[in-house]
Amino acid sequence: MGWLEGRFEESVVTTTLEQAINWARESSMWPMTFGLACCAIEMMATGASRYDIDRFGAGAFRATPRQADLMIVAGTVNFKMAARVRRLYNQMPDPKFVIAMGACTCGGGPYYKYGYNVVKGVDLVVPVDVYVPGCPPRPEALLEGLMRIQDKVRAMKDLTKGQPLEIPIPARTGFTHLPPELSDPDPVKAVEKQNAWAKRNKERAAPAKA
Amino acid sequence: MSPATLQDQTIVEFDVRTDEMLVNMGPQHPSTHGVLRLVLRTDGEVISEVTPHLGYLHRCAEKIGENVMPIQFIPYTDRMDYLAGMNMNLAYSLAVEKLCGMKLPEKANVLRVMIAELNRIASHLVGMGAYGLDLGTFSPFLYAFREREMILDLFEELCGARLTYSYITIGGVHDDLPEGWIDRCKQFLDYFEPRILEYHALLTTNHIFVQRTAGIGILSKELALSHACSGPMLRGSLNRKAGDPEWDLRKLEPYCGYETYDFKVIIPPFDDDYYGVPYRTPRGAVIGDCWHRFYVRMLEVLESIKLIRQAMQRYPSAQGSHRIEPPRHLPGGEAYLETECPRGAMGFYVVGAPNKQAVPLRVRAKSSSFLNLSVTNAICNGCLIADIPAIVGSIDIVMGEIDR
Amino acid sequence: MTASDIITALETKFGTKIKSKSLEAIDPFIVVDPSDLVEVVRHLRDEPTLAFDLLHNISGVDYLEPDPKKAAKAGFEPHLEVVYHLQSFQHRHRLVVKVLLPRWKNDQKGQLPEVPTLTSLYGSANWHEREVYDLVGVIFVGHPDLTRILLAEDWEGHPLRKDYEFPLEYHGIRGR
Ligand code: SF4
User: Fold this and answer.
1) pLDDT at A169 over 70
2) Helix (H) or strand (E) holding B352
3) What burial letters (b/e) apply to A145-184, b meaning 16+ CB within 10 Å?
4) Which of B90, B277, C25, C82 minimizes the number of CB atoms within 10 Å of its CB?
């Protein structure tokens, strides 16, 4: 606080408004109850007696997105669920944060290869602030992830510097139709484009011949 | 309305005009245990139809099963029913072993029984805690997780994982017990056994809890059989005094040497001293309702403790090794095997390719919660919206197992 | 009753409607034609000495070797099987009933094969049949609500067929 600091009695604390707001924000992160799969059990364990996420001010699990600041996506997101994840994210008030918990949400995890129905990483659907890998991550790892979110909040400068509150949302929404390079008003041409794309991808994915 | 009915004052009282309404519940809802979505057709507060929508956690496990070797598929079985990973490992291993015709040494079987029962306790503890949460009480959850963490510590010593163990594999178990594990397990059981009474005092006999579960969601035996329900769901609807069989696969089609252990199958009624527990059926509870399903689970914990103690006695003198090498290629043919998992009869159907491949031709997981959940519409008919969490919670579903 | 007794009893009752049987298999099974399925299963359920009142599982199995080089050595003709696992609550015996189907009806690609539904006999058949329809692609004729149960409604293809191609994208989310 520079020149102001130490000018008053000891019981007076000086700070900036921004820091005060950030401090309040970081110490009352309200996560949303959003258990999807196995990782949700570890999230529950983090909230339960031994690990006690309440020590970090994030124990008030909210059932509705409208009261939550933090979405812990705990578990596998599949195509049927993706649109729901996106909608829940949109319903949360700003500023909002997302933790991708577990290998599945980081990038498909154990279902990467044969999971025809699994979204290969939740960052294709919502922006992710902190990735917590593991299958499932231990509760300590989730707590660490929470602390990284708190670090992020502490450094927020939206009041003074006008820094944007959230990271940009990915273009793939789960609602939209095909990306422009694959779609065409003419259905025949669109199919041709998609076939070419599929072929190229297949060639790329094929293992190199020795 | 005809004048005849109007004379009855109670009918006038209830004859508030209500509209039919569709209420969507889930997939993100705290009391649907994951990502179940229910569409309720209600008339005021009264439910007339419940349509469950599944598939929000479909993770293609069966497709993976036919692309990887059986031993590689073991980790995926934990992730199916993530509350009872060990039991699922066991179910799949047994199915593959049945296909290959393997006979396991005694030590492997003793270890399997011990571990599977320990996991059953952990699973039922979560079931109890989460059921409390559904009904709006938070403290049983904390108590249940306190004890569950101790079981997880034991498991962590065994295999290093807290939730997804892959400890029981094809041909036995992955490793022998670490030194001193038996003593620590004994210590835990001695600590745990008196705690169960605490749960009963806290939840089972709680007046509000009884009011919300007794006489709600009654599942008749006929309906349960028609939908092939299993596990506590079916057992809660049977009647020991009417001569119903003890429908527990551990007794009926014993595997892993369960026939040599001494334990009881929990079947209502609970109005006498047969099971040696101090609590009796509360007023209003009838066989087949939510309270009975819940109580069957709670008593199974006691039986599991008995089983673990017996297995621990046998362990030092058990013959053979903890694991034998499985054959490299699966033989042709098919095998279907059901085991008693905490949620019911979990069946695996493994088809080996006729020309002896390392990967099976087809793996089918018949999930118990899938069938248990399919009765929801029938048993929810005519109940109130607030009863839905109580009923769905008493089925004790795990979505990972239903959608696979 | 042992499996051989059950199958003998069935053969005396139905004669040639039991297409084939296997007692040596790990789980003994019989094979029936789709048109006879309901009749045979109803008899299995209602006859007091058999009393198969539990239908545990319905699974569809796709017998196909997708690699044409290995197809000759695969040891089977390409076909689909629908497998029913039955058990009796009273007598506790088990039996497997199988129905063999062509992979495509009339051998025209895209036309799903058909089996009569068992929903009138067993409550558990309802969801299982929907699942088999969803993942393997078998139509159960007469099913009250034959829609996809696990995958999204607008999903294309039936993933548990061996020649299924994984989707590249679904509603704008890349699949691989
Ligand atoms: S990361 Fe692992 S534990 Fe977590 S949801 Fe995915 S499979 Fe389950």
Assistant:
1) no
2) strand B344-352
3) bbebbbeebeebeeeeeeeeeeeeebebbbeeeeeeebee
4) C25
Please, which residues bridge with residue C39 across strands?
none
CA distance B15 to chain C (A): 34
Mean pLDDT lowest among B70-79, B258-267, C166-175 = C166-175
Q: Which residue has the higher pLDDT, B248 or A157?
A: B248
* CB proximity A84 to C under 8 Å: no
C57 → closest Cβ in B60, B253, B349: B349
B399 shares contact with chain A (CB less than 8 Å): yes
Q: What percent of chain A has pLDDT over 90?
A: 0
Q: Is the CB of B79 under 6 A from ligand 1?
A: yes
Distance (Å) from the alpha carbon of C121 to chain A's nearest alpha carbon: 32
Q: Which residues of B147-171 are buried (b: 16+ CB within 10 A; e: fewer)?
A: bbbbbbebbeebbebbbbbbbbbbb
Extents of the domains making up chain B: 61-366
Q: Which chains touch C (3 or more CB pairs under 8 A)?
A: A, B
Checking if the pLDDT of B20 tops 50, the result is yes
Residues A36 and A43: beta-carbon distance below 8 Å: no
- Domain B61-366 is found in CATH 1.10.645.10: yes
CATH code for position A69: 3.40.50.12280
A190 CB neighbours in chain C (<8 A) are none
In a 3-state reduction of DSSP, which class is residue C61? strand
Neighbours of chain B (3+ CB pairs under 8 A): A, C
Domain C3-174: CATH class, spelled out: alpha beta
Q: For residue B149, list chain A residues with Cβ-Cβ distance below 8 A.
A: 45, 48-50
Q: What are phi and psi of B356, to 5 degrees?
A: 55, 85
Q: Please state the atom number of ligand 1 nearest to the C-alpha of residue A103.
A: 1
Residue whose CA is at the smallest distance from ligand 1 atom 5: A75
Q: What are the chain C neighbours of B253 within 8 Å (beta carbons)? A: 92
Q: B277: pLDDT confidence band, cut at 50, 70 and 90?
A: confident
Residues with Cβ < 8 Å from B138, sequence gap 6 or more? Answer: B132
Are residues A84 and B28, on separate chains, in Cβ contact within 8 Å? yes
* Two structure tokens written together for B109: 């079987």
- Helix intervals (H) in chain A: 17-26, 38-47, 79-91, 103-107, 139-154, 187-205
User: How does DSSP assign C27-57, residue by residue?
Assistant: S-EEEE-GGGHHHHHHHHHHSTTT---EEEE
At A81 the pLDDT is 85
Q: Is A77 in the B-facing interface, judged by CB distances under 8 Å?
A: no
**C28-70 pLDDT tens trace:** 888 888 888 888 888 888 888 888 888 888 988 888 888 877 7
Residue A94: which domain range? 17-205
- How far off is chain B from A164, nearest CA to CA, in Å? 28
Number of domains in chain A: 1
Q: Is the CB of A104 under 6 A from ligand 1?
A: yes
Interface predicted TM-score (ipTM): 0.89
A128, A80, C169: which is closest to B35 by C-alpha?
Answer: A80
Contact list in B for residue C59 (CB cut-off 8 A) is: 349, 362, 364, 366
pTM here is 0.86
pLDDT in tens, B192-203: 888 888 888 888
For chain B, percent of residues with pLDDT exceeding 70: 95
In a domain, A12, yes or no: no
pLDDT in tens, A32-67: 877 788 888 888 888 888 888 888 888 888 888 888
Res A174: pLDDT: 45
For chain C, residues with pLDDT lower than 70 are 176
Residues belonging to chain A: 210
The helix or strand, by DSSP H or E, that contains position A131, with its residue range, turns out to be strand A130-132
Residue C168 sits at the chain A interface (C-beta within 8 Å):
yes
Cα–Cα dist C81/C73, whole Å: 20
**How many CB pairs below 8 Å do chains B and C form together?**
94
